Amino acid sequence: MRLSLSVFHLFKPISNVLPDSSLLIAVGLLLGLILKESGAHIAYTLDSHVFFLYLLPPIIFDAGYFMPNRALFENFDSVLLFAVVGTIWNCIAIGN
């Protein structure tokens, strides 16, 4: 993951337009396609615990950390609305 981010930052025009999280998702898709098309008979499975504990947090952290502050504060009302409504919705849905 760090290697792909390092290579990504070498190409400044691309890294100014696309967030790093989109690169990590694209690299994952590319590696998945390569493994699928390689014809290897080894079954590659992704455990949901591994995904939620080790892969998803760096992607979310990276996307949130490098988000422009101006865009966040211009849409603060919408962000707050979705956060509050989404939290209440999930409490009701999961609490049953």
TrEMBL record:
One of its GO terms (molecular function) is potassium:proton antiporter activity. The keyword Transport applies. InterPro entries: Cation/H_exchanger_CPA1, Cation/H_exchanger_TM, NaH_exchanger. It comes from the Eukaryota. It is a multi-pass membrane protein. Residues 6-95 form the Cation/H+ exchanger transmembrane domain. Keywords: Ion transport, Membrane, Sodium, Sodium transport, Transmembrane, Transmembrane helix, Transport. The chain crosses the membrane at residues 50-67, 79-95. It is found in: Membrane. GO terms for biological process: regulation of intracellular pH; sodium ion import across plasma membrane. GO terms for cellular component: plasma membrane. This is Cation/H+ exchanger transmembrane domain-containing protein. It comes from Ancylostoma duodenale. The lineage of its organism: Eukaryota, Metazoa, Ecdysozoa, Nematoda, Chromadorea.
